Amino acid sequence: MKSLASKLAPKAVEKLIPYQSARRIGGSGHLWLNANELESSCQYGDESKGRNDVYNRYPDFLPHDIAVEYQAYCEQASGALGCETVAVRGADEAIDLLIRTFCQPGNDQIMVCPPTYGMYEFCADAFSVNTLAVPLLDNFQLDVAAIKAQLADTSLLFLCSPNNPTSNTIHHHDIVELLEASKASTLIVVDEAYIEFAPETSVLHLMVQYPHLIVIRTLSKAFGLASIRCGFLMADESVMSYVARLIAPYPIADPTAEIALKALAPEGLKSMRSQTDELITTREWFISELQALQIVDVVYASATNFVLIHFNTSNSIYDYLLTKGIVTRNQAHESMLEHCVRISIGSKNSMLETLNALQQYQ
Predict the structure, then answer these.
(1) Final residue in a domain of this structure, among 264, 285, 308
(2) Per the database record, which ranges form the Aminotransferase class I/classII large domain (predicted)?
């Protein structure tokens, strides 16, 4: 029986043979003369710190060690996953890979539920794939009936939970209902970039039951490693066998891999959990202080490392904060988020400065 992934993958992708890089082909020996590398390297390390890094060799064609460690980290929380994990250059590359793998330009479409992360539609537009938008309800939950009515014509449904920019999680039962309804038609992608701030809401455990479920993760948020560009794509083998055909020959640089492995080691995980707890404490304090301000209409409950605030002023709070040197995110371009500003949670001192600026607004 053909998998859903095999039905959706365009013929051009089905014919693809992964590029046979030197690392992919492999081999053993003591002279490595198969990749057109220099045997010696210019040294770029900081010798004063005892470092003399060497970068003349290509990295692992597929960063296997990172993927293994990340899957082990996930299995600690969710149990056996029944899926494969691949490291990618940030969650954005995972989005792009999925669209290029399972959508044919000018023929297929994806579905999104705005307001949500803009890269889903951007990646689709860049590949001449149509985007069907089914807006969230007033409570920022899914319009399940409207989504189900259009699943048959959709290759990929992207859901972000916790969602950016609304900061809420999607109801678990709604995701399950959509997984049931999409078994024969649509791959369901759940973007869990912010999941460490609400780990109990993860859908990873559903992957055993639903092989058409795909999960995207990242080290950019709770791990605090946005600059190294390391994310993860987690999917059933039937899905991954097609995605793997489009993965770049050397997707993760060695320095990135080394940092990622440290972050996923026991001490790294301990540090991540500690800073996550501290951020959540700061976030809840900041929310309580915001709710006392007359210019604030609503502070939406947050399951992320940011808060979404609806202000009752006629002037732009975003522009006002800029005059104070505080850069936030104006969400007024979203039809449902007029007069809304998204503020990331920083240190206690940063949030105090922001709060003081808002208190001084007249």
Answers:
(1) 264
(2) 85-354
Determine the Cα–Cα distance for residues 353 and 217; give it in Å rounded to an integer: 31
CB 232 within 8 A of CB 216: yes
Buried b (16+ CB within 10 A) or exposed e, 128-144: ebbbbebbbeeebbbeb
Closest of 275, 282, 279, 339 to residue 308, by C-alpha: 339
What range does the domain containing 21 cover?
Answer: 4-264
d(CA 147, CA 181): 10
Residues 213 and 340 in one domain: no
The whole-model pTM stands at 0.93
Structure tokens at 357: 């600026």
> Other CB atoms closer than 10 Å to residue 326's CB: what's the count?
16
User: What SS3 state is found at 43?
Assistant: coil
* C-beta of residue 250 within 8 angstroms of C-beta of residue 21: yes
How far apart, in whole angstroms, are the C-alpha atoms of residue 225 and residue 168?
A: 23
Neighbours of 251 (CB within 10 A): 20
Residues 57-105: tens digit of each pLDDT:
888 766 889 999 999 999 998 887 889 999 999 999 999 999 999 999 9
